[in-house]
Every structure is written in C-alpha cells, then in structure tokens.
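Memo subject: From amino acid sequence to discrete backbone structure tokens
Action wanted: Derive the backbone structure tokens from the amino acid sequence.
How to read it: Take the token row as a discrete description of the fold.
Attached in line: The record itself begins immediately under this heading.
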Amino acid sequence: MQQGMILTRRGFLRASVIWGSTLLVGAPLGRSGRWRAQAQTGAPPTVDRLAVRVVVDSYQDAIARSTRVGNVEVERFGLVPGADRLKKHLHSEFGLSLHLASGRGDEERNFLLDFGYTPIALFNNLDILGIDSARLDALILSHGHFDHFGGLVSFLQRDRARMRDDLRIYVGGEDTFCYRWIQLPNGQRDSFGVLDRRELAAVNVQVVQAEAPAVIEGHAFTTGAIPQNSFEKVLPATRVEVGIRDGAGCEASHFSKEEQEGKVVFDQFYGEHATCFNIRDRGLVLISSCGHRGLINSIRQAQAVSGVQKVHAVMGGFHLSPAPEPYIAQTVQALKDIDPDYVIPMHCSGAGFIQMVQKEMPEKLILSYTGSRYIFGA
C-alpha cells in the first residue's frame, strides 16, 4: 500500500486484493495533518488474554448470573452495589461502546472501541464500571454512525487532560467523517450527524486512518476496509453526503467520480473496519461493531490479513436486524462453516439472528448485556 493512497471505489477494489498478508505499524504524518499507517509485512501480534467489557449496548439483564461458557469467563454486572443501588444504574441505549483490556505477560493495553449514542449513557456507565480513561492507550472508532461516535467529543472534552499526551484514534477511512442522512419513506431526509475532525484536533487527538490493516499499540489489529467477497451485501442504512460543507465532512477526492456527482449517495461504508485480537493457542477474537460490510466478509478479511484461520470468537453488532430470514439463514450457515468457538451478538444483530443461532449453534451462543465482561485466554 502506498502512503497517501486515497480511497476511491476503484482504489478500494485494488487495495482489497493486495492487502492479503500485510499488517501496518506506525503512523507517519500524512497530508492535511492526518496520519496514515505504514505498511510492514508480518504476523499479527499475539496476546495471552483479552477482557471485553460492554460499556454501552441496547439491553441489560440485571439478574443474569456470571458463569463460564467453555473457555470464556462471563461476568455479569447486575445492580450497582451498596448504598447507591437505588440512585444509580447502568444506562442502555441504541448504541455501542466496548472497553478492551489485553495482556501479554506483564504488558497491558487498554482501548475504548466506539462511544455510544449519548455522552449521558457513556459517562454514567464508565463511572459505574470504574473504567479509568487515564489508562487508555488508544481509541478506536468502527465507522461514522452517530450511535457509535455520539459520546466521543464530549468524552474527550471531559477527560482529555487526564489521558496520554500522544493519544490516537484509529478510524477506517475518510468516509468516517462524512455527513450521514436517514432517508424517510416520504423521500425527505433527516440528519444522522457528522463527526467534525476539528473537534478532535482541538483536544489534540491524532487521527490515524487505517484504510489498510493496522497494528494498534502492539496488541490489537484492525482489518482495514472490508472487501465484499461473499454473498453478503450492504443492507439499507443511511445515505452519505460526499464533500466538505461548513468546514466538516469528507473530502470528495476519496470517492469515485459518480459518487462525487451524486453528492448524497447510498452508504457503502467503505471505511468500516473490525477490531481483532490473536489470542495465544485460541485464535482470533473479531469485534464487528456494526457489521455493515457483512459479518462473514469481516471474518474472512481478518483471516486473510492475519494468516490465522482459527476463529475463537466473533462478537459485536452484526447488522442483521433488518435482514430477511433467508439472508440470516445463509449467514448462519456460513458461520457454521467457519466454526468459531463462540458467537456473542450485540447492538444491531437482531432477534432473528439470535434465535437462529440459538437453534443451530446453541453451544456457541453467549447472550450479551450492558455491563457484561468476557474474558478470553484466562
């Protein structure tokens, strides 16, 4: 991958072919003050353990009990302990935020992946769960939807002074910063927000665009942009506005001529990426925060760029809530063929998918709630 490559439709397809066994490290300063990862061929990092805490999700079961499912420790949060029980509780909302804590020997890393829909839920839950922002080594944003970045800017404005000076946020591509629109049945559009990169610059956060696979702080790796190489397609979601307006938005040069001419176009989520860990002697844990590019596509991309075929767990949002039953069935069959040890659906995965996995792969399914913690490699 050449430094400074822009993500057009043609470039995306070409890049998806050549990324096969390449991981990226480092973050040299690119044009417009943004950083891009630098290519280096090699195996992905391996960690001994990984704990994934659900900071914000759509649902909580306060009386679900902690348990062990095979090799995974499942810790449920329940109610706030002590005298605060009647005053405080975890907030659930349509959004996702995950705290990731990995370890290799005595070396630890902490990440916050996505930031929920509102700062109210994010702040409340971070504080109740005791997650210390000062210990975060990096931030990761899966894609440019408001239910994943809604709490980000307020979180940084509140906590940036406590965090490491060289804090980076890893995003998948330029379209992370596009204006998004919800298409209404009557043909009109409602705003679904925009992440303004000036607000990140104002609090001295370095944006790393990992359009290709990238190692994150020596422990995790991102898939980079996810090619569509299976039956999966991008299901209808938002529309994306190409171009800069009022100082915010995404640079049109990253898109094809046809997309530039359309201005507001069907959202292909070119820059969406998944976050992965390679657990020693267990395999890959893949976190698909929303999965617009497809759960199976995401898994296959992680396998291709890492060279690791064994999938220990897939977790996160799989965006199958709007999918018809035959499409879900095809996804579940493909998942059975891949044969992950565990499937942990969250956020937008949908009741239809969960019910089908419960029927077809009951020993692999772990239900997820806000506050839950999953420990791999323990």
Notes: The domain at 24-376 is CATH 3.60.15.10 (Metallo-beta-lactamase; Chain A). The chain has a mean pLDDT of 89. The chain has nine helices and 25 strands. The first strand starts at residue 22 and ends at 25.
